[in-house]
Design a protein that fits this description.
Four copies of one chain form a homotetramer. By secondary structure, chain A is α/β, with parallel strands linked by helices. The first copy, chain A, has eleven helices and 14 strands.
């Protein structure tokens, strides 16, 4: 934290600021210039809001100089994190290694036949993970139900049948225990990116965790949230860019492809992209999936449905089986062009 | 919903769209023009995403024509909703009536002395509601704790002592029961504006509910969320604008004052404003509080702290006791200028 | 500018940064810490982009500590600027003084009758300035014509007839000379906020200049643009907030009322608001005009048209004569509530 | 345009709306339903703002159903536009054909040596166009000078020497004549995307025109601007996505890669990307250039400088010569992966 004092700041005001910094465990270096006194403060991580200092008497400006996150920072683990999952039926899968990986499945769960068929399509295309959204009795998004044991059992059965790993979204702390029983990986959705109680609980989980970016969250805030999971002791954290909200409404969200490239520099954590939720339109999923891999994404989340025109939710953004199969072939070429496999 | 078919759309494609609309309980009017066939579809409420039709073969364009919300719409109750609370100690308070009301209190709960002192300041200034944020053992925002029974009891005691009503935020379904025991009003925070499980549970509550706008939520999405609470049978719903995220980072958020005026036209629900969270800076709270009332807000949420420079959270945006008292006087004048009391 | 060097930055890298800072006329203070070397650099104004340093080898972080503007800063003239215009027919008008002022007129120029009628309505309501948009032969916004001498003469005649001052928008350097002949004040529109050639030319003008905020411009960028005009020697600069673009599309733009309050703290320049362009809807103009004055605006720009339903442009956002008259009465009350006149 | 009338709309109100639609050359189809009367109106292009109808008495809702642009629409020329340039020294270059093309050069013009050296680097890497920003006597962005004849002559000389085509930005109508003499292609910058006088003049030019997207412009607005150029008779129009402004400030702008894929569907015009201005950081240029090509961009604008650490402007976002050469090799691989050459 750098605090620049006003021209006329009194000694008392300067002392007040120094006292507050020290109380927050910062080391403070004071530099008395001809015009302004500048306080340079270094602490373990800069979570404190600079506004807390800006409103103090005699303070002209206050800025963070260190990142507000620490454990998620690239400097914490320069070589990068590779999340490794092993399973009897699905073999070994690494996320963050040389191979880009794909997680695919339908946006909503409509019944056993749809789920089994979806898993078959997903596996045939070459994805390693099966992922399905919430229970959908109806098209309205307000009607999504949380996953119960019977549904989780069905998802597990589908994944096992086709040699896939299973990723499941959790939205309340109370769901984690059940989800851990059935799933290989837990997802925190974008709406929960700053649900700190949930993040803390995921930090205590033995399962790898994928943290989706909130649709109005900065990259800094996203990595602070990753820190929350990491600080619980769970080092198997992955990030997923899924579109931010901008003024442009021609697409559902704006896939922040730059953030993928940026996060790979700022953090050691693997980062994936979800072009389906970002665009909301199946005809834009393929180009954005290619773009994400070209920018360096470690993987993709893709919505695919046996019959999207009759899907109970997320139909518009779900690929048809043939489109998905074709995309997977395209992605292998793009991955190769950036020196990776798929 | 209006669906415009492509020039060369086949009869089969048109039938496919009509079939999907009817399956979703829309009444469909078909208009065959020289160039385009246009399908006008009217349903109970337009929750379905137009994208679901845009991706169908032969469809050129699809647009909603009705609002996606229904119960929250002004046309549902043209006279407007007045939420009325009665209490032995605090008397009768109406929200949405002639008087604009103020809810105030500290951003974080630090201990009994701080809470009692805060309630005293709040009451002395003329606010009718006491409101306090989460338990704060530390300045970092990730450390907030949910409210437990002991804390709720303390808040209740403080409110009662000074003749105030008590508003409490809930963030998980499981917290509602306990909160209802102690609080006069429940708040759903901006992070939970689309937590549909929580909204459904609040719809079954006997307590009035205040629904804060998500920081990246459109007015339409906000009113759809209000519909979710209303459809559970709880008619005592209020809205609160607390700042949206824009490109401007000079303030924490951008208070969307226009949305206050707009929502009063679109909806019958009372709408309040939270200038403290919106600006994040105590020196901007007073002008924005005045602006909100001038634009027609039915009330305000204001952060006030006995000693904000030493607050464990939200200190920068909390008014000092004297600033709060002065603001309350200013607000009476502004309220009078728009024909209201405070 | 604060430059924080990497842990392992070499002496050579540090010297390279210091050399670049000195070359840009910064005074550099070096602070060698246990872990990081920190360079504090103070210059005349911080126009240089911190990114220029961030990409240098060995640099971890770089932040501005001073504002990037200087002449527009409140500290440059703490008492505030009052722009004073004197005219035989309109008397003396001050902007930035105790009285909030109103500039009003139609969004497009359609003919002599419309202009004369508009000026009469504007004057009768109590506004001091007449302002009219471009020549409009058609509703499409792409058809606006720049003002020619005949039109300027007409506007001058209308203003003089009703004792009003005249404000005219200029969009190219070449238009300034002609506009100065007829107008009392020149406006730079939001699309031209960063047209630095135009700003420089306005800085050499003898007429007061109003600088509208770009719809995607930060407050810092706006004040840098004001600096460009001021540095040309023209001290009579005013600012006008006219709505920013956010994700919310329920209104044309989002009037950033907070920016009005903020700019009054950051700058000594008067700041006005344009609720007509911000909302794009006449039914929201009155509440937002009240909000702006309550937040501290020094004046308003309001679109009013003798018959907006048949206007050739900006009709939706133009007040009807009776609505305008009523609003002017409301504004007097709000102005009084914040200790001002109108 | 679809206009939905209120439940209780009178026959007179309906007639008023129909009259206004007909006056704007719409064909109106009236559909009288049990509850609402719906007016379907089809016109040559939907430039008129729906708000103009929304504020009329008796109108409940009004929505565009056709795109507001026409000539730029893909349906106008389904096969796509290929802009072809022929030159003695540079040979034939096609934009929008199978080959993706690169335009490169420094962000600012500092002198003859820098320009000649830049052109040499640009040509050696395989780009076909030389492009250089404004005259830069100083790092501050406010000091950019428009191009004079001597500078244009220098740029032409550099381009010719190395067999490159020359693209030059124009920002005022008066500059077009001179620029046409020296340049093979004219650029309209993002600040001028809605400078309709300039667009009209470019529509009368014999030179191909590249239209950069405004940083707060929707895709619809961008294509309306392209329509303005096309309607002047100049069919050689190209688009360039250069980053939009979002809440994320970790990068200068947010490159809207999705818009590239979307515009290729909506329009027949070639679309390029400018990753240098979008990211503002040279370490992110390569991944974003790859992403743009993978998403279907027809070309790229890239800032390259012989010595960016000492550049007078845009240094942070300019590639070093070796980085540029390496990127060009990477891009060939990505282009091949999507079935194109470079």
């Amino acid at each position: 934290m750098i605090v620049v004092m006003d021209k006329g700041a009194t000694e008392e005001q300067i002392e007040e600021v120094i006292g507050k910094l020290i109380g927050l465990e910062f080391n403070v270096h004071r530099s008395t210039g001809a015009v302004h006194t500048v306080l340079g403060a270094v602490g373990p991580a800069e979570l404190v809001d600079p506004e807390e200092f800006k409103v103090m008497d005699g303070v002209m400006e206050c800025r963070r100089i260190m990142t507000p996150y620490q454990l998620a920072s690239r400097s914490f683990r320069p070589a990068g994190t590779v999340v490794r999952l092993e399973s009897e039926r699905a073999g070994t899968v690494e996320i963050g290694g040389n191979a880009a990986i794909v997680m695919a499945g339908p946006g909503g769960i409509e019944g056993e036949e749809q789920i089994l068929k979806s898993a078959e399509i997903v596996a045939r295309g070459g994805a390693r993970f099966f992922r399905a959204g919430g229970l959908r009795p109806h098209l309205a998004p307000q009607q999504i139900q949380p996953l119960d044991a019977a549904t989780l059992k069905l998802l597990r059965k589908a994944a096992d049948l086709y040699g896939l790993l299973l990723a499941v979204e959790v939205s309340e702390t109370a769901q984690i225990g059940l989800a851990e029983e059935y799933a290989d990986m837990l997802l925190a959705g974008s709406q929960n990116m700053q649900n700190y109680a949930l993040l803390a609980a995921l930090g205590r989980s033995g399962r790898p965790v994928m943290l989706k970016r909130g649709m109005a969250a900065t990259v800094d805030e996203w990595l602070v949230s990753a820190d929350c999971v990491l600080s619980g002791g769970n080092g198997n954290v992955m990030l997923c860019e899924r579109g931010i909200r901008s003024f442009e409404s021609a697409t559902k969200n704006t896939l922040d492809v730059t953030a993928i490239a940026l996060v790979r520099k700022l953090s050691h954590l693997p980062v994936l992209a979800d072009p389906s939720h970002a665009t909301g339109r199946r005809d834009l999923v393929a180009p954005m999936a290619r773009a994400a891999v070209a920018a360096g994404a470690d993987g993709l989340l893709i919505d695919v449905h046996p019959d999207p025109d009759h899907a109970l939710g997320e139909g518009a953004q779900s690929l048809k089986p043939a489109q998905y199969a074709e995309l997977m072939l395209q992605l292998k070429t793009i991955a190769a062009a950036v020196g990776r496999s798929l």
